[in-house]
## 1
Amino acid sequence: MNSIAVFYQYLRYRMRAFTKHDIHSPFVFDLVTQVIDDKSHRPSYDRIEVLRKSLLKSADEIEVLDLGAGSGHMKGDKRKVRDIAAHAGKQSKYGRLLFRLSERFNAAEMLELGTSLGISALYQKAGNRAGHMTSLEGCPNTAAIAAKNFQSMDMADIRIMPGDFDQTLPLYLQSIQKLDQVFFDGNHRHEPTIRYFRACLAKAHEGSVFIVDDIHWSPGMEAAWEEIKAMPEVTVTLDLFFMGLVFFRKGQAREHFEIRF
């Protein structure tokens, strides 16, 4: 989807999106007021953003193996680290939200599909240092930089699995009993997104939160989001435009919200 189409989609979202005053579901109201709209500061935010700033200055160049939908900003196999940091990493606003989600739900088993340079994995792990964090990355060179970043931030226990998701995801899922938090941020296409989501769904439970990135990035991702919302296991979804949150709360009325963020 081109930038003009995304802009008009965003305007539609802003006109339709709920604020906390429009929400009657106690679960969603608490989630919005205590997590999504939480502006309080955490010391971990500063440490991660210092790392981001250093990456944004890096002139190092690596060869990138892109197994997903590619980048709308970067072309070619060789890319500067600073360009990857500028275009592939989640903005600090969304990193902080990932932190608060893992903190709020005390996510013990966290999975991320799409490590990039490791910023979003660091935010999630920092939200619950006692939790187990695994991140899958298709490009081995990018994964190597992320691993160094984890070590520099005293989070070397973040497990990174380089390789094709079609090979690494089944291996990971075989090794765990349940999934508390999943961040889908790799291969932004309809069919792979649905396939990976369904694979992880087998390990979901009532308290799980699945986070889908760039749900309005393309018509294919919008179709994937609508398909996810329609899945019988899904009870509550929150559309934050650049991210979608998915919950599986049994006994909860099926509701889908567009929340201003």
## 2
Amino acid sequence: MNTPSFVICIENSEYTASLEIRKIYQVLPYVDPAKSGHLRLIDESDEDYLYPKTCFLDACLTKSVE
């Protein structure tokens, strides 16, 4: 499965200070088989961290919106 370029946060109960519900985040490249259930993105602290994929939905944006 390909990693999406952009995702929408749908769950932040464990990350309320770091993620905003309904906000679109850009997914950063990350290759680590041990962390395959995670996405790397820049959160509200302006730092990149790993978050569970279950916190997000793929944001299918058109090229012009991206």
## 3
Amino acid sequence: MGRVAIVGGYGAFGAHAAARLAGDGGLEIVVAGRSLAKARDGAEKLLARGARAHIEAAQLDATTASAQQLRALAPNVLINASGPFQGQDYSLARACIECGCHYVDLADARRYVCDVTRLNAQAQAANVCVVSGASSVPGLSSAVVLQLTKGLETMDEVHIGISPGNSFDPGIATTASILGAAGKPFKVRVDGRWVTAHGWQRLNRYCFPEIGARWMADVDVPDLELLPANYPQLRTARFAAGLDVGAFHLGVWALSWLARSGVLADPGRLAPLLLAAKRRLSMLGSNTGGMFVHVSGRDRQGVRRERAWHLIARSGDGPYVPAIASVILARRLLAGNGPPAGAMTCFGLFKLAEFEAEVADLDITCSIEREAN
């Protein structure tokens, strides 16, 4: 029987990871977090929904957890869903290494994910796996890129985007993280050069199948660094995020200019106010979200190929998407066929078919929409 501790297991994404794993009667699941009361409530909800796994609750703060505390919980795998990760260090991952427990997180913060390899020697010495970025990006996005680039000799451009439905409630911390990125500079690869982009700028429209057109804007993610590192010939890598309700998206876009100009020092401070407004206007928008990945390159004959993949998540099932990569890796690590010991980013660690199999019972569909020359 495998034992999985999920830190932040009652949060926006951790609860969805717990729900997927709770269906396995051969597992023990520990719903953990800073609040023991919330952890117990999360555990009770899983049991009320017919969890087949053994469910427990525990108090564990991701920022202060020690190896001694982890030994008391005795997990085989720990999933860290306690984001946002922009302000976190690797203390929880180090505690896992010290007590011989595999570590997987749902981080999408560029530096946090890309720099996790600093722990590689320690993780190898302890014979444990430390994986950062087991989320929509770069976990799922890299799996899609690997699928779309089959048969391509070179890859020229990758464009990735995500737009959740308005029914998703991100919570104060995640909202503050989203707003805090507005207007901040970051490097992107465009036409073979590294240029500066700014969070929630370069406003554009993208038309999703079924969903229709939504506003999108540049956002910093690990893929912008990992894609050029893994595909040296890649000339352009872009990532965009969009909000379901156009007025909300344009509001964040406006805040990005105030932040970039220095008029608004910390947009994240507006999180409680803006989240409260979003909740009051919950009737707007929809419970449907989407994700896309476009790639272009040349095949062995030198013919240019363009391919596009879309994910559509209906019925409010979108929040499962960022959690699935951690579920896939946790299952594999428990089965003994996970990634090798060491610290690594979640880039190409599972196949798209594994993701599709895991969400087959949800109202989520994936399709390769286009292939042309």
